[in-house]
Amino acid sequence: QVQLVESGGGLVQAGGSLRLSCAASGRTFASYAVCWFRQAPGKEREFVATISWSGRNTYYADSVKGRFTISRDNAKNTVYLQMNSLKPEDTAVYYCAARSYSASVHSNEYDYWGQGTQVTVSS
Q: Which of 4, 38, 41, 66 would be a feasible disulfide site paired with 114, CB 3.0-4.6 Å?
C-alpha cells in the first residue's frame, strides 16, 4: 500500500516557476513508477510526465517538454515536478500516481493516487 501527498501548488504569473512534490509512504516506494497527471476545469485528465522506479527513464507530454522536469529522490520517498516557463494553459489540478510496474502514460494503469494540488497561472 502506498499513500501519496502532493504539495507545492499555488498561484504564479505566466513565465514563472513552481516545484511540485509528491511524498509517498511505504518502504517499497523505490520500486514504483510515478506519473504526474493534470486536469483542468471541464477537461479530461491528461498525462504530464512519468519516471521509472530507478529515475533513469523519463517521458513527457509534448505540451510540457523542455519546460517541466520530473525527478525523484528515493531516499526521501519523494518525486518532484519542476515547472518552468509556466503558461496560463498549465492551470489545472496536478495529481501524482504510482504503480508497481514500468512507467505508463495511461491513468487507468495506476493504482495509487494523491489528492491533487492546484496550480493557477495568471496571464
A: 4
CA distance 58 to 115: 23
Check whether 5 has a pLDDT greater than 80.
yes
Return the C-alpha cell found at 51.
519516471
Q: How far apart are CA 89 and CA 74, in angstroms?
A: 31
Cβ(105)–Cβ(95) below 8 Å: no
Give the integer Cα–Cα distance in Å for 6 and 20. 7
For residue 32, the Cα-to-chain-centroid distance in whole angstroms is 14
Determine the 3-state secondary structure of 30 from DSSP.
Answer: helix
pLDDT in tens, 47-66: 999 999 999 999 999 999 99
Burial class (CB in 10 A: 0-12, 13-18, 19+), 1: exposed
Of the pLDDT bands very low, low, confident and very high (cuts 50, 70, 90), residue 91 is very high
Instruction: Report helix, strand or coil for 59.
Output: strand
Residue owning grid cell 512507467: 103
Strand partners, 22: 6, 79
